[in-house]
# Entry
Amino acid sequence: MLFYFIRRLGLSVIVVVLAVTILNVMLHLVPGDPAVMILGPRATPELIAKTREAMGLDRSFPMQMAIFFGNVLRGDLGRDVFTDRSVTTIVMEQLPYTLMLITASIAWAAALGIPLGCYSALHRNTWLDKITGVLSVSTISIPSFVMALYALLAFAVGLKWFPAVGAGEGFADSFHHLVLPAFAVGISWVGYLARIVRASMLEVLGETHVRMARAFGLRERKIVVAYALRIAVLPAVTLIGAGVAYLLSAAVFAEVIFARPGIGALIVKAVDSRNYPIVLGCVLVTTGIIVVATLISDLVNAWLDPRVRENL
Amino acid sequence: MAASEENVSIADHAKRTRREPGALRQYATQLAGNPLGIVGLVLVVLIIGCAILSPWIVPYDPTQIFVGPRLGGPSWAHWLGTDQLGRDTLSRVIAGSRIAMLVAVATLGTALTIGLLLGLIAGYGPQWLDNILLLLFDAVRSFPVIVFGLALVTLLGPSLQTVILVVAITSVPIYARIARTQTQSLRNAEYIQAERAMGAGTMRTLAIHILPNVIGPLLILVSMDVPLVIATEAGLSFLGMGVRPPTPSWGTILNDGYGVIRNSPWPVISGSVPIVIVTLGFTFLGEALRDIFDPKLRRDL
# Structure
């Protein structure tokens, strides 16, 4: 297990380094000077030269990369072009809002989707199973920003049950503000999780150990919860781990549409003003989150299923 | 006794000589038995029809500004209402289908070609190359699509080409991985070994024997990814980072609608209809196709 963990961790680090390098290579492949792009067409040559020096663009590419990684390791993601504040501070201010949104979304989706999938598997071809099936496919395919717009239109603008703007202050108010965005981000996951749990549950229910439990005359409820579901949720764990990338993308839209603070809102604003250090910082942090999430879900899987450890 | 034996043999003969229904016909019958698949097919045909015929079937010029009511609800003159400038939403939506389909075809075509090539190389080439490519795929996959897209927009500026590039780059690893898995499972198959023993070169083996077996499952995946690509284009355009106004894209129509959501619900509702239709259509159809051709496909992911 320890060996697996070390190898997996090493691979994750390589992946992050590669991802950052790809991004920086692209920055260099783009025609034009990043300094000119940030400053705009009316910048004076002296200002451009100064900015180039400040950004380290006058050095060779490998040297730039080395300096960049050195800075990242020290937690320095550069400075905001306009306010000269540290990018790390700015990103870290916004990060909790996004993490809260993502966690709330996946939590309610799992709380509804997993039991729904479980029920569907146990009561196959009943009307609820069929409705769940069709609804799953439909909600999975509709983009989250369309869902967010509908939610905003129906419950905030139309019925006025929930606020349309901001993140709120204090626990109750924050929760009130969180409901609609979390609904919009999570809704497709209800379908995803229900489907995958249903499929794996059906598989597990046919396995020998479940039949054995039946033969021993255990109560159905105990068989389902203690023997079948425990194994059947495994694919759901993997799915959530791999799905953090999608959750982050959906969060960008939810934050923009509901005017919430967060990484997504930050990056959109930064792109509008061509504030490249902030954009790069956001990409870096979100990529880091995704790699860590994948790592955690891989480890959970390896811990639960020893076979995974053998073939990396 | 003899008569019954004869009967049996005639029946057998009849069974043997009756033509088996062609593969295409079988698939069609299977699809016909799947109501959601039929719905999907109808919706997909509708949207593709709109995209191809859009210049001829739009009721008005999509950029023409009418003097009549702005932000009007559906009426006989304007079936889906008018937007904040008084433009006909139905015409804009139909014209937008062209952009959406263009993006889908361009990105998926590019991603499929590059993914297939890299997948074949990773699956058939030396181990070290495979390892490097796998790491690269993982690295690209660890960017969240929208965030990565926004980063590229900062570099290249918002345009249709940027959107195509973003979606193509982020889709390549998915196809490449599947092509790789398929190639690997084929490379040791007996008929491939025989082909090589007879002196066939790598290119010949890959092109004639492996490629046809790899491309089928990929095509189904591609059809299922159409809604994802269209959603990404619409999403980036919604954020103002994709197709620029006044070109009618579904995303920009929704963005306009979002701006006036407190004044009128119609632009958002009308603007979202095509996205919902297209995503539902392709998903239903893709699911049906997958069930028919290869039920285990998605597990390789």
Observations:
- Chain B has one domain: 25-297.
- Chain B has a mean pLDDT of 77.
- Residues 4 and 10 of chain B are 10 Å apart (CA to CA).
